[in-house]
Amino acid sequence: MLGETAEEVLARRADSLALETFEEEVADRLSLLLFRIGEEWYAVRVGDVREIFQEYEITPVPGVPDFILGVVNVRGEILSVTDSAAIMGLGVVDQGVDGVPPAIVITNGPVASALVVDAIGDIAEITNQQLEPPITIIDRQQAEYISGSVYLDGTMVGIINIDRVLEPVVTGRH
Amino acid sequence: MVEFDRSAFIGKFQEEAAELLQRLNEGVIMLESTPDDRELIDRMMRDAHTIKGSSRMVGLIEISDVAHWLENIMVRVRDKEMAYTPDMSDSFFEALDAIVYLTDHSGVNTDGVVDLDGLKARLAVIAATGIEDDEAEAEEQTAAADKKALKKRTKKSKDEPDAAATAVAADGEQPVADDASGADRTPSHEELEHDDLSGTPSDADDQPHRLDREAELRTKVQATIRIRTNQLDNLLNLISEVVIAQIKSEQHLTEVRSMQVHAHETSQTWARIKSMLAALGRTELLEALGDDMNEIDRLLGDSRRDLAEFAKDYAEDTSRASVVINDLQEQGMRLRMLPANTIFQTFPRAVRDLAKQFRKDIELIIEGGETELDKKVLEEINDPLVHIMRNAVDHGIEDPETRLALGKPAQGTVRLAARQEGDRIVIEVSDDGAGIDPEKVRQSAVRKGYITAAEAKSVSDREAQYMIFEAGFSTAAIITEISGRGVGMDVVREFVVEKLKGSLDLDSVPGQGTTFKLTIPLTLAIIRALMLRVGDHIFALPTSSVDETLRIDPSEILKVEGREVVRRQRRTIPIVRLSDILGVAAETVQGGKVPIATISYSGQRMGFIVDAFVGEQQIVIKPLGTHLAKVENVAGVTILGAGQVVPILNVPDLMANARSRSGQKGRHAEQRAEREGPRTILICEDSFTTRELERSIFEAAGYEVETAVDGANGLSKLRDGLAPDAVVTDVQMPNMTGFELTRAIKNDANLKDIPVVIVTSLEREEEKAEGIEAGADAYITKSVFNQDTLLDTVERLIR
């Protein structure tokens, strides 16, 4: 950085500004990863998904909100485990008799969490035109967590509001 | 005077600034799209503040001035006094580029490449955005005053070709002389290079040429690679995974060994069966089985041999890998180790400047500067150390006259020493000053409502001294600006314990001096921890905070005033159940001894009942992940050998919760809650501008403000029954000065509890002394006056 001249600094800045606009323009198509909570279907943008895993061991952590089941060790990295059903007020994800429910690691900038769901579905390709505002009949607690919806094969699919779900958790004094 | 190796830390500043400037640049861009990002605003403010402080420390005043304006703007954005708008970005970028330029050129603004005056004026305009008419007038006046001061400074630096360069030269002489006389070390390339750069005033003409040469030299001697910290962290993360894998291999080896034992037993059993069959003597049966029995013999023999060979190879491989992995871990950790001198060497200059300002004569002795510790630890330890050192200079060491009168040498000594003790680093800051008078602390604690007068009597001297670590508590008889912007000893303590997983101890003998002892783990990544079990959960408790582990008979738990306590060495220790604090299920209590871990935290002891102690071991600290930003009572997690994840407990949280649970809730907290409605401030000031400026500052912060035009006017308002929460007064006023007013307030039984803050342009030590003598609670000089200092000081006094 120290070696850079003012022009270089400005050039780099211009580049990064140009990049952001560019990304917005091509984001006309959207890939969604579908998953099921109870009988309902939801989705996250594929771009927000880092990985999916099935076998893991949750360590409970005291003092966290109900929707945090604990933490897992993913190759040395610690991730929180978020119960998708609990956070949206839809009960809890069925822990199953054999092992644990599948987890989708979702990311939003630096923040990541493993979102446990009842089942993982297909990847759906949609266009931005297919996006609709969230359905209004859902209750208010759930509404915060849904950023939009889309009709797929006669099923209404809610798109998860990743900003809200991955809002950093702070408990206690401070 | 102490040696001051300036060249070494101009380099350090450049390194630090590069990172901060990069972040600020990115920040400005991000702020354009998310102007309300609170975290971003806070970070940018801190970054600007850090640049301001560090550049001032190394004498790059121009950078400090520019950064100061950036910080001011960000402070106002943070306080929602103005909004960040994209049209500010140009000036922001201009300022950042100016800092980049000045940083790269060690503060030398060659041929006025950077339009500093213009830039500062533009920043001042931004900083005044959104201030309403009459307030704007006041602000403008301050800005004008500032500009005048700047002009003066700029003019001065024009007269002497380059003030900064001259300063460099003056300081630069010292190391050169040292190198010439001291044969014990060869000057490094870097030192030569920097000494070269510093030059002498007569070199000023060919400065550009010299800068070119310096750049050339630098590329040639480059023997280091700069790596982003997160890359290094990723690497260390992977190394710790390898370590865990290795521990697993070792466990597998024991499994293989037990397989060998089983194979051996199988062989022996088989041998017995064979001999029994032979004894039966049924030859036709033996003949029929003969081939199969031989086959089993062979198979058993083969598998035993194979297993033995495998076990041998595996054991060798594991032990070879273990040696390599230990080295790998050690080298990996060492990548982040730097000598303590990296931060220590900034202190001689800072202490010299401070001592000068306070008219004290102080020798700073630095020991163990070569002790290496983790870069992260060094970064985190810097601020607490700065604060403790300031404390030592400001409140510890007495002025020369007082010292002589006490029979001490006129020159005070501050010692800063680092040493390694096992897997811990101990840093001590000791002074031979006045020490902490427990009685004064008791009185102050009673006055501020931390304890009652009755309780004060039962507080031991040591406990009293430790009360300086309470939030908002100041050791000083008077608050002066140097004690910092609201960073108290409480913050220092929390920093050391919470962030560094270390401990902070205090040893002070009134009249003889004070020693602060910081014990911190060698690296932030690895600490020793006591593993304990509560119900089904295992938790790790940093050993640095654990006093002792006890197993006591349930009958030894006493009930005192509804609290449970145990007696240890003639002390009463309150106890709580860790399961209650954490809100997890404990085992149903059965007979037998009760395991208790006692924790000491700032002079207070508390026992925590657990279900079992599992053991003590080294653990690798990992954050709770990006999603869980802060979880009460939990500082992080660690991964045990078998891959098990274990939460690490947060000692300050535990202690705070335990105290409130055992009924020792900080009384001041409740008292504060009782206070309803806005607080009132009385401002005594004869200057209309200053009066209205101060009024606007306090009103903006939600205070009700009463004003008086001089001391006599103020005093009569007080005697007429105005009961403000604090008095803020000027010194030089007609009719009655601020000192006279203070004395009158402090001598009036009805008024003496009202805190008095003196705000003045008088800076001389004698005047400050007069302020102290008059009984003022704080003394703020107008030259460093800003609204944060003022508000902060008042808030600290009236809680």
Walkthrough of the structure:
The complex is a heterodimer of chains A (174) and B (799). With 174 residues, chain A is an alpha+beta fold. Chain A has helices at residues 6-26, 84-87, 140-143, 162-165; strands at 29-37, 40-45, 49-53, 68-74, 77-83, 103-108, 111-116, 119-127, 146-152, 155-160, 169-170. Chain A has 4 helices and 11 strands, in the order H-E-E-E-E-E-H-E-E-E-H-E-E-H-E. A 5-stranded mixed beta sheet of chain A has the order 8-1-2-10-9, with no helix packed on it. The two termini of chain A are 36 Å apart. In chain A, 28% of the residues are buried. Mean pLDDT of chain A is 81; it is low at 21-25. Chain B has 27 helices and 25 strands. Chain B is elongated and about 130 Å long. With 799 residues, chain B is α/β, with parallel strands linked by helices. Chains A and B meet through helix 1, strand 4, strand 5, strand 7 and strand 11 of A and helix 1, helix 4, helix 10, strand 18 and strand 19 of B. Strand 11 of chain A pairs parallel with strand 18 (628-630) of chain B.
